[in-house]
Design a protein that fits this description.
single chain; about 80 residues; 2 helices; about 0% strand
Length: about 80
């Protein structure tokens, strides 16, 4: 898990950046694929998400996932989400 100094001061946010290594996905998805919109096995995605939640020390149900796009669009979360 990769962390950044700029976000480390935010005590109310648990975060981490992950690369593609360490996942259980196979074939074209061979990685730590967490893309629920992909055609990867739902079982593999669930295992990958469990791995991430464990590394971050949070419950899997508390993870906030984004639909990754390659663009200049930004989403800002301005308030506490009641999950």
């Amino acid at each position: 898990m990769i962390k950044t100094k700029k976000l480390s001061s935010q005590r109310s946010v648990t975060y981490g950046f992950f690369g593609s290594k360490g996942g259980v996905s196979k074939g074209i998805y061979k990685s730590l694929n967490c893309g629920r919109g992909s055609k990867d096995s739902k079982k593999n995605i669930a295992k990958n998400l469990s791995f991430i939640a464990d590394k971050m020390g949070v419950k899997k149900a508390k993870l906030i996932l984004m639909n990754q796009t390659h663009s200049n669009k930004v989403i800002e979360i301005k308030h506490n989400l009641s999950l």
